[in-house]
């Protein structure tokens, strides 16, 4: 049996997942990162994307997250995020609409701060990615 680490994925409203996993893959601010058991301690911010893990009891799990933080200690990974959605919790049509709206807003932006538009686009894309459904119907 492979070495395990414990994953807790927490939102302000609930604990979305709490259990042993073989690996966690998360959308770190500087790129995706994978965490196995006995990983060096770290604290990183997360961008909007999909947190994936191979859970002992649940199999492969995936959550679309809208950013947040991840802390890794020797035998534990803690993900703190405002929102985490499973594929079943995603309204695909709303996500597609949000993605289109964010892309249009970015196209209209002529310089200046695009942070909000880019975050909206990334969050809509993360919701679609977790469903494994195409962007267009």
Key features?
single chain; 137 residues; alpha+beta; ATP Synthase, domain 1; 2 domains; 2 helices; 45% strand
- Could you report the average pLDDT, rounded to the nearest whole number? 93
Oligomer description: single chain
Order of helices and strands: EEEEEEEHH
Please work out how many helical segments DSSP would assign.
Answer: 2
- Write down the overall geometry: globular
Percent of residues in helices: 10-25%
Largest sheet: 5 strands, mixed, barrel
User: What is the percentage of strand-forming residues?
Assistant: over 45%
The tally of beta strands, per DSSP, is 7
CATH topology annotation of the largest domain: ATP Synthase, domain 1
Structural class: alpha+beta
Overall radius of gyration: 16 Å
The total domain count is: 2
- Please write the CATH class name of the largest domain: Mainly Beta
Can you tell me the CATH superfamily of the largest domain? F0F1 ATP synthase delta/epsilon subunit, N-terminal
In angstroms, what separates the terminal alpha carbons? 41 Å
